[in-house]
Amino acid sequence: MRKEQALGKQRALVSEESLRGWFQVAERDFVAEGINIHAATPDQVFNCDETGFPFMTKMGYVLAAKEDRQVYGVTSDNKHQIKVLACGSAAGKMLPPAIIYPGQRLGFDPEAQFPGCKHYKTANGWIDTPTYKNWLQDIFIPATRHLRKPAFLFTDGHTSHVNEKVYFLSKDAGIAYYTLPAHASHILQPLDLVFFKAIKAE
């Protein structure tokens, strides 16, 4: 027997037919731009995605007296979280992650705690269009400048990712930018399926 995984109604409606249709449309869109996706090498194809890590720690198992029906652990009342934006290629190369913090002031030095990462702040810790544009300019474009163009970047359809500013910035940098189908990240989002899943299992 295997344990069921919770799946929202919208995700449950995703079918093989709809996914095949997305691949066909994507190929037509690339052809219309004069791009041959089949000529791309694994080091040219990237996926980016973000996930949240709550400040409130998870509760674990503890030893308790048999008669204790409830066992409590004290944790933070803070419901905020930080977001981590990761990006990797089909060849297995991971770019430096970006960490997005809520608020404008931090009580620690992020550069000292997480060297090699890029740090951003937004009002609520969620990614927005200016932050995503900065990530493209600070991390993705410089990291892919040496590659044969175009470099392909597949991402979800979050509003911060899908707008004219991001599209033209990507196009000017030789990046073929394309969004994955809605409600299908549990099937097609490599970072969700492997990278973040492994981290959150710790």
Automatic annotation (TrEMBL):
User: Any signal peptide, and if so, which residues?
Assistant: none
Q: Which GO terms describe its molecular function?
A: DNA binding
DDE-1 domain span:
84-201
The record ties this protein, via InterPro entries, to: CenT-Element_Derived, DDE_SF_endonuclease_dom, RNaseH_sf
One GO CC annotation: nucleus
User: Could you identify this protein by its name?
Assistant: Tigger transposable element-derived protein 6-like protein
Name its species.
Elysia marginata
